[in-house]
Design goal:
The complex is a heterodimer of chains A (about 260) and B (about 700).
Chain A (H helix, E strand, L loop, with lengths): L13 H22 L2 H20 L4 H44 L9 E8 L9 E3 L4 E3 L4 E3 L4 E8 L3 E9 L2 E9 L9 E3 L3 H7 L11 E6 L6 E3 L2 E3 L1 H20 L4
Antiparallel strand pairs in A: 1-5, 1-9, 2-6, 3-5, 4-5, 6-7, 8-9, 10-11
Helix pairs in contact in A: 1-3, 1-5, 2-3
Chain B lengths: L2 H9 L1 H14 L14 H39 L6 E7 L4 H9 L4 H9 L1 E5 L7 H10 L3 H4 L5 E4 L4 E4 L2 E4 L3 E5 L2 E5 L3 E4 L6 H7 L4 E6 L11 E4 L13 E5 L11 E5 L1 E3 L2 E10 L7 E11 L4 E6 L2 E6 L7 E8 L2 E7 L1 E5 L5 E4 L3 E2 L9 E2 L1 H11 L11 H5 L5 H25 L3 E7 L1 H13 L17 H19 L4 E6 L5 E7 L1 H7 L26 E3 L4 E4 L14 H14 L12 E6 H4 L11 E5 L2 E4 L1 H4 L8 E3 L6 E2 L9 E5 L13 H8 L24
Parallel strand pairs in B: 1-24, 1-25, 9-10, 9-24, 11-12, 26-31
Antiparallel strand pairs in B: 2-34, 3-4, 5-8, 6-7, 10-23, 11-21, 13-14, 14-15, 15-16, 16-17, 18-19, 19-22, 20-21, 25-34, 26-32, 26-33, 27-28, 28-30, 29-30
Helix pairs in contact in B: 8-18, 12-13
The chains are: A alpha+beta (about 260), B alpha+beta (about 700).
Chain lengths: ~260, ~700
């Protein structure tokens, strides 16, 4: 099999998400430690706390309380200023990392015998009638194509017979473009859509090369089911779980390592 | 069909990232580490600040009408008859009126001169005896020592003739849980304040007048009242003492320090050295002392050393202090004592010597309450950083023992003083209406230790040529004058400014061991075969002793039924003995100098009145100018010599005849009284705020002009 899968975590990637979240939480506090002025951040935080305490201690002195509020705001600005550089430094790699992890955790691969939809959007609505889908032997079409001229889209219902990574071909206006389809019981890298141009959108949604700019097909999408992780009697989107766990891990590690955040 | 768009929504990535970015933008406080969910933890800590502020604002807003009503009601009571909007009291412990007058006469101290010329300057009568804890207790309660129960730093235990701190007692929690070799305390140490009487800010607070009180002596343990207070003199260090420094050294030829410090060996550890700071006794009842180990790596070329203690690593140069360093003493079973201290690198070659200040209670996470409310000390620590909390934070003993030199001691004093100035000016800003009182004790410590340079012929500085004597005390008064100048810039015409001191100062050139005199005159008898006694009357035969002295000015009779082994009958015999001692000691002459060593012996029955008179000494010794009780005498030691030169840096003092050392009273308003006394301050301030005066007060309110330029 040419595609990568991590079968151990196939049924539930919970442990993997938790592990990655904890490691990232630790990595972030360490990166923050070395890219920030720890002393200045400590001082700024202490002053903020002092102004908060002032509101409580001098609550009957209205001018004092108002000044304390003003100082809380200006202290917040100082704090932000100090946090801005490390924030920028960790922002880009973490964003990139999340996008990459989402290829694995955001979607479930298709299962054998599972029906799914293949959608293609074309440039010219006239090309809809000529659009065709060519499937490998392991995949088969289970219904006639549906044309949606208003949206310049054509949709096929397809079913996979067995596991594997396949390329399907969509032909339109004399050109043929391909799209990857993953059928696997394990954890696999998923690209739900292949599209042309639009770097920003491709970066967040597609894990495949762009379609040519002159391609008559604007995009091809596969209806992979979104992944839901069960944890603590709740269903979680992995990013939300990642957010919560890495946050808790960060808090723990910052206290253990004595890092000012 | 919107398959693709619904897929994108379901994927969660784009919206989740939007959510994340939205979080960053909407709650930027967390953004310092929130570069994705992984760093979102940081957002929370900052978000909490804003959330707490918001929550408290909401609470404040909802409860505001009710509080405003209450405040209006209270203030009508408090300020309705008030003659002032605010009273600011700046206390300079030990500022001497003669010296102030002399420096003003020399054209110095422009700000105090301005107060003198446009307001008031008078000597301020002090207490019997003229000792800070006594005088400041009288200042705050408006009563004589017979009503507040403070007669000295020390009081004596009638059961065993041993001393204890007169102002507060800290005892172990009553209940313990025995687990193997450990005795786990159930509860916190019990702190009992021994000063009686009610500070006047309690009365003001009850009437709705807000009070900020900073480091007034004998305010430990802090008492609850409607205002804020930071305790001063008498706050202990982490060991529970009044300040025990630590001198770590590779030289082991030095002897034991007389008091105030311990010598700790530094041992070689590979390329570096290691030593430790002694801490409090193990609270788990093992009988051992806790320690905080540290490592030191000297860099001789650069004249500096790197010190590693706990998780802190820092570098200091020779002759420099570190910042305040947190120290942790671990007792086991999760029990830890935390404090702060400063390191001073004295030498790194050929020997290594490090002085460590007494371990102060950490104001940011106090193990004992040092402020009211507890959060006030935390507030100050968060605002200005850690600061000295020990009552006697200026390490006079370290200079006396020559562990610190003059410059190092002064650097310590003025470092602490600057911290206190910051606290005071913050309190001034936070108290636009009400009382703001702060006592600075730098004046006392510096005069104690540097009087030798002011005195022309002090035995401790005889080898220093007159023209080379540093002008430390002049500089001290200049600094305090500058402080007053800054206060004057921050107050308006409706504020009364009082600059006061608890006592003045005189030279301390000759020591007198009164126990030695009592011994040689048959009043104090030693055990057979002894010609001297160790500390705390170790070799005294109480069954034959009629009188003894301990502490700075108190002389006690060994009264039957009062002291454990008393032999003097109370009543006529005791009165006769007192009279006999008075007549013999009053005007006692030092044969070496020909000067009068004692200018007054005061009967406590005559100078004190109140419910605690029984705890007072029987006689107060008023030493003459230039004299004071010797350190040995203070500690209950009996020596052979009665008089001797004082060769220590501690060269100025005020524990003399109180008539010789009045304090100062400066004010920005005219005050119509010829002989004001420190006991009058409390009733004066209370009256200025329109309060009825309690009948038990001993002080009398002064007539104060209603405006700055008015006459009374």
């Amino acid at each position: 099999m040419p595609f990568r899968s991590v079968n151990f975590f196939a049924s539930t990637p919970l442990l993997l998400v938790l592990g990655i979240s904890i490691v990232i939480g630790l990595a972030m506090v360490i990166v923050f430690r070395y890219t920030s002025d720890q002393k200045a951040i400590g001082r700024a935080k202490d002053r903020l706390k002092a102004h908060l305490l002032a509101v409580r201690l001098f609550q009957d002195q209205l001018p004092v309380v108002m000044r304390a509020y003003g100082r809380i705001l200006s202290g917040t600005c100082s704090y932000l200023r100090l946090a801005f550089t490390p924030f920028l430094i960790v922002l880009l790699p973490i964003t990139f990392l999340i996008v990459q992890l989402d290829r694995y955790f955001g979607w479930m691969p298709l299962q054998p015998a599972q029906t799914f939809l293949v959608e293609a959007r074309v440039e010219d609505p006239a090309a809809l009638n000529e659009a065709s889908l060519q499937l490998p032997p392991e995949l088969s079409s289970s219904a006639p194509a549906v044309h949606v001229p208003k949206d310049k889209e054509v949709v096929w219902r397809v079913v996979a017979e067995r596991e594997g990574q396949y390329d399907i071909q969509v032909a339109a206006a004399g050109q043929t473009v391909s799209k990857q389809v993953v059928v696997s019981p394990g954890l696999a890298r998923i690209s739900p859509v292949r599209l042309r141009g639009n770097l920003w959108e491709r970066m967040f949604t597609s894990g495949e090369p762009a379609l040519a700019d002159n391609s008559p097909v604007q995009l091809i999408a596969i209806s992979y089911p979104p992944r839901v992780i069960r944890f603590a009697w709740m269903e979680w989107n992995w990013i939300v779980l990642f957010f919560v766990v890495s946050l808790i891990a960060g808090f723990v590690f910052k206290s253990v390592l004595g890092i000012q955040v | 069909m919107k398959l693709l768009s619904s897929q994108q929504r379901n994927s969660g990535l784009f919206p989740a990232l939007l959510l994340v970015i939205g979080f960053v933008l909407l709650f930027p406080m967390r953004s310092e580490a929130y570069a994705g969910p992984g760093a979102g933890f940081a957002v929370l800590s900052s978000f909490w600040t804003i959330f707490a502020a918001f929550l408290y604002s909401f609470y404040a807003l909802v409860t505001w009408p009710m509080r405003q009503l209450l405040r209006m009601f209270r203030r009508r009571k408090a300020y309705g008859k008030a003659q002032v909007k605010r009273v600011v009291i700046v206390g300079f412990d030990g500022m001497d009126p003669e010296l102030a007058n002399r420096f003003m006469g020399e054209g110095k101290l422009p700000n105090l001169t301005k107060l003198r010329d446009s307001g008031t300057f008078r000597p301020l009568r002090t207490t019997f005896p003229a000792i800070s804890p006594v005088a400041w207790s009288t200042f705050q309660t408006g009563v004589n020592p017979g009503k507040h129960n403070i007669y000295d730093f020390l009081a004596r235990d009638l059961k065993n003739y041993l001393p204890f701190l007169s102002s507060a007692q800290i005892s172990e929690p009553k209940r313990h849980l025995r687990i193997g070799k450990y005795s786990v305390p159930l509860g916190k140490p019990e702190i009992k304040g021994l000063r009686r009487g009610t500070p006047f800010w309690h009365w003001l607070g009850k009437a709705g007048v807000f009070c900020s009180v900073i480091r007034v002596p004998v305010t430990f343990p802090p008492e609850k009242f409607p205002g804020v207070l930071l305790s001063g003199m008498c706050v202990p260090d982490l060991k529970g003492s009044q300040g025990t420094f630590c001198f770590c050294t590779t030289r082991m030829d030095g002897g034991r320090f007389r008091e105030g410090g311990v010598r700790i060996p530094i041992e070689r550890n590979g390329a570096g050295f290691r030593s430790y700071i002694p801490g409090p006794e193990n609270p788990l009842g093992t009988g051992s002392e806790l320690r905080a180990d540290f490592k030191l790596r000297p860099d001789v070329k650069r004249g500096q050393a790197q010190i590693e203690i706990d998780s802190e690593t820092f570098t200091i140069k020779v002759g420099e202090y570190s910042e305040w360093i947190p120290v942790k003493f671990e007792a086991g079973m999760g029990f830890t004592a935390r404090g702060i201290c400063r390191f001073y690198l004295k030498e790194i070659s050929p020997e290594v010597e490090v002085y460590v200040t007494p371990v102060n209670i950490d104001p940011g996470r106090p193990d004992l309450p040092i402020s009211h409310p507890v959060t006030y000390s935390i507030y100050l620590a968060k605002l200005f950083g850690p600061y000295a909390t020990l009552g006697l934070a200026e390490d006079t003993w370290a200079l006396n023992e020559e562990v610190l030199d003059d410059q190092a001691f002064l650097a310590q004093c003025y470092g602490n003083h600057e911290d206190r100035e910051r606290m005071f000016f913050d309190a001034l800003e936070k108290t636009p209406q009400g009382l703001c009182a702060c006592v600075f004790d730098t004046t006392d410590r510096v005069q104690h230790m540097f009087w030798r340079y002011l005195d022309k012929d002090h035995p401790a500085a005889r080898d220093v040529p007159q023209d080379q004597k540093p002008r430390v005390i002049q500089d001290l008064y200049d600094r305090m004058d500058s402080l007053i100048g800054r206060v004057m810039q921050q107050i308006d015409d409706q504020t009364l400014l009082l600059v006061i001191s608890d006592h003045g100062f005189k030279s301390f050139a000759r020591c007198m061991n009164l126990n030695a005199w009592l011994h040689q005159n048959g009043y104090l008898v030693l055990k057979d075969g002894k010609s001297e006694s160790g500390d705390w009357f170790e070799d005294v035969d109480w069954s034959r002793t009629r009188a003894y002295t301990m502490g700075l000015n108190g002389l006690y009779l060994n009264v039957k039924g009062r002291e454990r082994e008393g032999i003097v009958e109370a009543g006529a015999e005791a009165e006769a003995l007192k009279e006999e001692l008075r007549s013999k000691l009053d005007r006692l002459v030092d044969p070496a100098s020909g000067k009068i060593g004692i200018t007054g012996m005061f009967d406590c029955d005559a100078v004190y009145a109140g419910p605690y008179v029984d705890n007072a000494p029987d006689l107060i010794v008023g030493y003459g100018e230039g004299f004071r009780a010797s350190w040995d005498s203070v500690m209950g030691k009996v020596t052979t010599a009665i008089f001797e030169d004082n060769l220590k840096a501690w060269s100025g003092d005020h524990c003399v005849d109180p008539r010789l050392v009045p304090g100062v009273l400066f004010s920005n308003r005219k005050i119509a009284i010829e002989k004001p006394a420190i006991v009058d301050v409390a009733p004066t301030v209370m009256k200025l705020f329109g309060l009825e005066l309690p009948s038990y007060l001993d002080g009398k309110p002064w007539a104060v002009a209603t405006q700055t330029q008015d006459s009374v």
